[in-house]
Amino acid sequence: MAEPRDIVTSDRIEKVVVVGGGTAGWMAAAALSRFFADGKRTITLIESSEIGTIGVGEATIPPIRNFNGMLDIPENEFLRETRATFKLGIEFVDWGRVGDRYIHPFGNLGRDFHGISFHQLFLREVFRGAADPSSFADYSMSAVAAGLKRFGRPSADARSPVSEINYAFHFDATLYADYLRRLAERQGTVRREGKIVQVRRHGETGDVASVALEDGVVIEGDLFIDCSGFRGLLIEQELETGYEDWSHWLPMDRAIAVPTQNVASPDPFTRATAHSAGWQWRIPLQHRTGNGHVFSSRYMDEDEARSILLDNLEGKPLAEPRTLRFTTGMRKKAWSHNVVSLGLSSGFIEPLESTSIHLVQNGIARLFALFPDKPISPAERDEYNRGMRDVYEDVRDFVILHYKATQRDDSAFWRDVRAMDVPDSLARKMELWRLHGRVFRENAELFALPSWVAVMLGQNMRPEAYDAIADTLDEAKVRTAMEQMREGYRATAERLPTQEDFLRRAGAWYQDQPDTPSVRFGSFS
Fold first, then answer.
1. How far is CA 505 from the centre of its chain?
2. Would the N or C end of the chain have less CB density within 10 A of its end CB?
């Protein structure tokens, strides 16, 4: 067995360079400077004010709270500074059939009985005619609260239904990046303004050695984090890593975004409304509502997509609509040589399930778990790439499910996605559900059983049978317990405040604060 080597200064990564700002860049800088800007390592972020940032999201999923917690960000301060609202789930409109409406809630779906999954007992009630398949959301505390437009933070009392609430946020991605920039710079991150005009590499290893700015300044680094957006300045333009195109499964390649005035108190959920060749998002913030139409240019031209979006807005537009173009997929390697790509540089899956920021967060966490020394170990780099591929493919499959699991045949788009072949990993899940309503979570898969159940039942995927183990429990007792659960969720939700009332009471409503800064608009949801 080899003797353990001593870690000396020369073996350490000392200079980390983040290329690009925006949400991804400042998330990386804030996290890196929190732990690695110790006087021995330096964190430098390069961005140009002349290059606009797209932003990677306005809607998030619950793990964002872990990221903010890691950075010791006070939640109420975060809510005020980013004009954020709470998010209990996503409401889907017209996805299974035109006229359908269901919610994918965060948190539990009912409570298991004696180790038997709640959804199997619910399916037994459906098959016996005692429950409507669409009533599954009545057994989710988050879904019931969302339906009543109420909110409360989870209770520490496990006996209270409020303890089952889980939540994420809607926020202004530009303001979030600004907030993280202030935090990162306080922690020692050095921001350099300028455009990169040259990349210099080591002759022997091929690693990136430095980048040169337009003004002639050269910035050296041991590890580079590419957050330069779709172009992938280092990971693709320089290292030519390659891109895996998934548009044959997810043909959306355009999004038109526009902010509007709020017309009512903000709802604690995102809405995704299906149209003839894509879908429209509605994301309520404290100061405005984010809207956008994600569509496939193979099935709809931009003028028609723009008209559909503008015809379906609830408030007055606050800016001109802008179009974003993308190709769904991922880099063949998220980490190549000494360059780690994050955010749009790493890949892109349309924002249907609000996973863009989570993929950045996951990449940062994975980098921390595998943070290298010099020279970089191929084994650690390969492990990072394997893990990022797994999480991207998990998200890909879950998003594809929304299109495949439809009964719509009112347009060529819906007929085609309904008939398409899907990845084997998704086909296996759908077949297990079709037979006995079974769902199995694999490895560290992001979306857990309640999420798959919510989408499959919400889009009318009724299995052929339920798991026979459900018949081992007394039907009358289970039915009584389910009714008590349902009534308890409803009664508890009715006692919760509205989201706006909650934010005001918490001191998190930005309009209640003196000297409110001006509002900026425009982020890719």
1. 28
2. N
The CA distance from 496 to 162, in Å, is: 9
Q: Which of 354, 287, 280, 244 is nearest to 23 (CA)?
A: 354
pLDDT of residue 61: 97
Residue 269 vs residues 171, 421, 521: alpha-carbon distances, Å: 12, 31, 20
- Cβ atoms of 282 and 90 within 8 Å: the answer is no
Average pLDDT, the chain: 93
Tokens of 173: 């991605």
Q: Please state, in angstroms and as integers, the Cα–Cα distance from residue 217 to each residue in 139, 195, 197, 213, 235, following that order.
A: 59, 10, 10, 5, 21
**pLDDT for 38:** 77
Query: Rounded CA gap, 490 and 508, in Å?
Result: 26
Calpha distance 476→321 (Å, rounded): 55
Catalytically annotated residue among 15, 40, 87, 149: 87
pLDDT per position as a tens digit, 38-91:
778 999 999 998 766 555 458 999 999 999 999 999 999 999 999 999 999 999
With 0-12 CB in 10 A as exposed, 13-18 as middle and 19+ as buried, what is 386? Answer: exposed
Residue 337: both structure tokens together: 């040589």
15 assigned to active site: no
Measured CA to CA, the distance from residue 229 to residue 237 in angstroms comes to: 12
How is the beta sheet containing 347-348 ordered, strand by strand? 243-245, 329-331, 347-348
